[in-house]
Write a structure and sequence with these properties.
11 strands, 4 domains, 53% helix, 498 residues, 11% strand, five-stranded antiparallel β-sheet, elongated, alpha+beta, six-stranded mixed β-sheet, Beta-Lactamase
Length: 498
């Protein structure tokens, strides 16, 4: 009965470590065995000299005289052995592992009774199982890490150049998502510790998520980017399991800390646009009762500007980027849609390296990219250069228009009024002060005589009303910069005419 009680304690320790899911804690098992037997214990590495783990007062001096015996046990010539050295009784037992094996060494002033020897054998078996489980766990973690990297590479390909590059990223293991025609981005905001659990719950043996794809956002640790296939002809009847979209909405419903923004349906080549829509919808979702929001289509400023003059202005502004290294230009484009720290994480480089590349671009463009209004200008030029790539070639003798000339047009004014029309005057004042302070809420609070929390509350309200993302360094703030500037231009023109 006493032996059964001892084994029960050993089983409890094994269960505790299994629940933790971390690396095996050999030291705790050795300390448990010490409490049961009073002996001093060590786990000796296969080199028979290094102590991997031991109880506090283990006499390491005993190892040198018994090194030949330890080597025989390590190599499997003996399963276990008992000897004496320096007046101490020593029992050695190898762990049941492949290759040269670690050896459990138990040292006691007195001879070990049979029940204690049996307990040592049980402990050796448990340590072997824990080691094997740890190796299996490491393999599983390595697989999960590589699967996450592959999914991120697919997302990078879709965001950068579309499905062709995304296919090349997979080295033949093409995810089913790339076979679909359209997708929606579901941007889930949840505690960062929940992302692995959610993604793994829906992962298939190939490392993907059936017809969909779930990717850890490399910029914002609390975001899980879910690319959901949108097949208009898909049949959800007949008792089929719920779609990923439905499952995600249930997760948000059941977890008050979750929120989700959902984009419109887009072809695979427009994944970047879909992601931007989902980010704006997520900002609005925080203020909705069910914390889920769909993106409601809004005409982009690019579409409200005269195409050929706007393209001419954009090319003139961006032409100096041709003189900087390609890497610096690419990093500059990324820095227009994500904070510098996020760009550094995304590209696996230091923030100082990102800053150095941006300085090259700043010098070439004559723009201060730390200033939100300058970033808005460059971002608009980049958007125009992408949307007007096939426009009529410009006349090199023609002077490019100024940005204000483009923004004075009636379509641009209508766009600004539509965007800001539902916003209360006090929130509009807060936005102006916040932009004047280069998005520093504390500085804006001092200028307006408010608390920083009040400023942020106004900004959250503006996010919900406007349906744009302002506080996570997304592109929504650029729309506000341009809309407020357009209205200021129109007001100035009206004043002059009056």
């Amino acid at each position: 009965m006493r032996q059964d009680g001892r084994l029960g304690g050993l089983l409890h320790e094994v269960q505790r470590q299994a629940v933790c899911g971390a690396e095996p804690n050999t030291r705790r098992v050795l300390e448990w065995l010490h409490r049961q037997t009073g002996a001093h214990i060590a786990l000796v590495a296969p080199d028979v000299r290094t102590v991997e783990s031991s109880t506090p007062e283990f006499p390491s001096r005993t190892l040198r005289p018994i090194a030949p015996l330890l080597a025989r046990v390590r190599d499997g010539r003996l399963a276990a052995a008992a000897t004496q050295t320096e007046g101490l009784h020593v029992r050695c037992e190898a762990l049941a592992l492949p290759g040269p094996r670690p050896v459990l060494v138990v040292v006691c002033p007195e001879a070990l009774p049979p029940d204690t020897a049996a307990l040592i054998s049980h402990t050796s078996s448990v340590l072997s199982l824990l080691r094997q489980a740890g190796d299996s766990g490491r393999l599983q973690r390595d697989y999960q890490r590589k699967a996450r990297q592959l999914r991120l590479a697919v997302l990078h390909g879709l965001l950068a150049e579309g499905p062709i590059l995304a296919r090349r990223m997979t080295s033949g293991a093409v995810p089913p998502l790339l076979e679909t025609n359209r997708l929606r981005v579901h941007l889930l905001r949840c505690p960062s510790t929940d992302r692995d659990r959610i993604a793994q719950a829906h992962e298939d043996p190939s490392g993907y998520h059936g017809p969909d794809l779930m990717v850890h956002c490399p910029v914002f640790k609390e975001h899980l980017i879910c690319l959901v296939a949108d097949d208009a002809g898909e049949d959800h009847s007949g008792g089929r399991p719920p779609s990923l979209s439905e499952t995600l909405r249930c997760l948000v419903r059941d977890n008050p800390r979750y929120a989700m923004g959902i984009s419109g349906a887009h072809p695979l080549g427009a994944t970047a646009e879909a992601y931007g829509q989902a980010a704006h919808a997520l900002a609005a979702a925080r203020a909705t009762p069910d914390r889920v929001a769909f993106y409601h289509g809004r005409t982009p400023l690019v579409s409200a500007l005269p195409q050929q003059p706007a393209a001419q202005w954009a090319r003139a502004l961006l032409r100096p980027l041709d003189s900087v290294p390609r890497t610096s230009a690419d990093i500059t484009r990324l820095a227009m849609i994500a904070p510098r720290s996020g760009v550094a994480r995304l590209l696996g480089m230091s923030r100082n390296t990102v800053t150095a590349h941006l300085k090259h671009a700043e010098h070439a463009l004559s723009q201060n990219l730390k200033d939100v209004r300058c970033r808005a200008t460059v971002h608009l030029a980049l958007a125009l250069s992408g949307s007007c790539a096939d426009s009529v070639a410009e006349d090199p003798r023609q002077q490019p228009p100024a940005l204000d000339d483009l923004l004075r047009t009636e379509p641009a004014a209508a766009w600004a009024r539509t965007l800001l029309g539902a916003l209360q005057a006090r929130h509009r004042r807060t936005l102006r002060a916040w932009l004047d302070a280069n998005t520093d809420a504390q500085q804006a609070a001092r200028r307006l005589g408010m608390s920083r929390n009040t400023i942020r509350a106004h900004l959250r309200t503006a996010e919900a009303v406007l349906g744009v993302d302002l506080l996570t360094h997304g592109t929504g703030v650029y729309d506000i910069v341009h809309a407020l500037h357009i209205l200021e231009i129109r007001t100035a023109v009206s004043t002059v005419h009056d």
